[in-house]
Amino acid sequence: MLNRRNFLTAAVGVAAATGLAACAKKDEGGSTGSGGGDGKIVLGFSQVGSESGWRSANTDSVKEAAKEAGYNLKFSDAQQKQENQISAIRSYITQGVDVIAFSPVVVTGWDAVLKEAKAKKIPVVLTDRSVETSDESLYVTLVGSDFTDEGRRAGKILEKVLEKAGHKGPVKIAQLEGTTGAAPAIERAKGFKEVMDADHADDWKIVVSQTGDFTRAGGKQVMAAFLQSNPDIDVLFAHNDDMGIGAIQAIEAAGKKPGKDILIVTVDGVKDGFIAMSEGKINAIVECNPLLGPQLMEVVKKVKNGETVERWIKTKEGDFMQDQAKAALPSRKY
Ligand code: AHR
């Protein structure tokens, strides 16, 4: 992704964008002032949807953190549709919120609406996912994970999984991709491929790869089709736990043992993923932390106050092998 690759470590000043954002604006109810007259920061947040356990945890984190911070949160769920997100953002612009935050369902197609926000001096903070834009000034910062690195980590942890399983010879890999055009789908695939190309050009091969749209139902359906066309798959790399869990159902329905006949690496680290891993059905999980709410609220406040923030605020995450699952499960927060 353009913006992630060109990650700017330099901090960017946002005073210009926020100075006017703090000026009096009309909200839907006709009251003026940033906060609708009660002094609270008004944050318009457009969520991707409710496609996965990760997303539910992310939504809860944002809502709880906004409450904790005393913000007036305007929240909308786009049901994984870009047009819904664009309408929500337009509505936040009309309402004159102080700051707009959103987790873009796909990377492209945002310039027009972001320009509208900029014209109204409303700063935009990206959370979780990035966008591709020709004008970097259209958003202030991204609070979220390094998905390319998650893909690389998945590749590296697969080496350990194969070694532990005593797998020798060529490795036939099935990949369940996230939503087509979404940053985590593009970047996780890219990072994983980097490891393949660099270290396993001769022995690893992706034999099938298709989107499961980050959902359990999608994972199950696509994995069932994979098994029809490629019954001898050795490994499944699923871009999230939910698709991995759906795939496990398809693998079992086909009379195979997930985690043994087909080795499975997923991304996220939600509780259900850890449960499947503690049952021996997932071999390793690359964590992607959804608890972005507190960091987001901190950034929103800084942006509103015209303070300087980093261009990309990254999230700390870990990797887990199957033998760590039982011990880690009780302390999983999501
Ligand atoms: O953008 C983060 C991804 O979106 C998560 O990995 C996935 O579960 C979610 O739907």
Automatic annotation (TrEMBL):
Keywords: Signal. One of its GO terms (molecular function) is carbohydrate binding. The keyword Cytoplasm does not apply. It is found in: Cell envelope. PROSITE patterns: PROKAR_LIPOPROTEIN, TAT. The keyword Zinc-finger does not apply. Pfam families: Peripla_BP_4 (PF13407). Residues 45-307 form the Periplasmic binding protein domain. One of its GO terms (cellular component) is cell envelope. Belongs to the bacterial solute-binding protein 2 family. This is LacI family transcriptional regulator. It comes from Streptomyces lacrimifluminis. The lineage of its organism: Bacteria, Bacillati, Actinomycetota, Actinomycetes, Kitasatosporales.
